Recover the amino acids of this structure.
């Protein structure tokens, strides 16, 4: 059986979890505590970079969200989450990459902002503008269709759909993109989306954790650099 190492709030793990549900594949969830478990030797033996998700399929192990999504689509093509039409496929890939390369960095920056402050930093303002610009692009690509590939739910929804719905709570409303807002609401009504939905308490805890993550990352980076230096010096 497929095994997914994940954390419920993980921005990277949630699309894989969602794809498994939408494809109606049997799988086992293995929760990982991102408070430090990802840096323990047992986990680093699974992924030397110390992050989720990880997918195990028998003896084969895959890391990185996009690689896992492509693996699932190639290995388990029914139910399909990719169109075969060239234009639709290009649209899906554009949405996936724009969501990860443009929208996700903005979301992460907004999650890290100090929401107790009355004044937005220049970085936060840029993140909001970047998110708004990306939403406008997605609105134009969606057009009047129910999904980015027309009538078929695809990896475009799987990736972008796990980010868009959280933006209003981060200070970026969807009201200027009514088609995208309706699209997001339809996705949230799907059983798979409801299954992965974070409770208000989980979302609040995740936001609080993200605000302290820069300090955690700095500490973990120093620890990792020390461990890597010892590893390479011992191999010389």
């Amino acid at each position: 059986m497929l095994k997914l190492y994940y954390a419920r709030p993980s921005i990277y793990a949630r699309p894989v979890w969602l794809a498994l549900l939408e494809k109606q594949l049997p799988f086992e969830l293995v929760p990982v505590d991102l408070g430090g478990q990802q840096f323990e030797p047992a986990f680093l033996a699974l992924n030397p970079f110390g992050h989720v998700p990880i997918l195990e399929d028998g003896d084969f192990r895959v890391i990185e969200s996009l690689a896992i999504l492509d693996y699932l689509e190639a290995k388990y093509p029914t139910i399909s989450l990719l169109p075969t039409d060239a234009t639709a496929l290009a649209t899906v890939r554009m949405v996936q990459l724009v969501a990860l390369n443009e929208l996700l960095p903005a979301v992460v920056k907004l999650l890290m902002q100090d929401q107790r402050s009355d004044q937005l930093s220049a970085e936060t303002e840029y993140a909001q503008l970047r998110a708004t610009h990306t939403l406008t692009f997605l609105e134009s690509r969606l057009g009047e269709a129910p999904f980015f590939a027309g009538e078929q739910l695809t990896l475009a929804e799987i990736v972008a759909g796990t980010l868009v719905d959280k933006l209003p709570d981060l200070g970026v409303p969807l009201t200027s993109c009514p088609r995208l807002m309706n699209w997001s609401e339809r996705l949230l009504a799907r059983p798979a989306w409801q299954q992965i939905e974070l409770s208000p308490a989980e979302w609040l805890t995740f936001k609080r954790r993200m605000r302290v993550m820069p300090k955690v990352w700095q500490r973990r980076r120093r620890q990792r650099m020390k461990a890597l230096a010892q590893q390479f010096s011992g191999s010389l």
Summary: DSSP finds nine helices and four strands in the chain. The first strand starts at residue 2 and ends at 6.
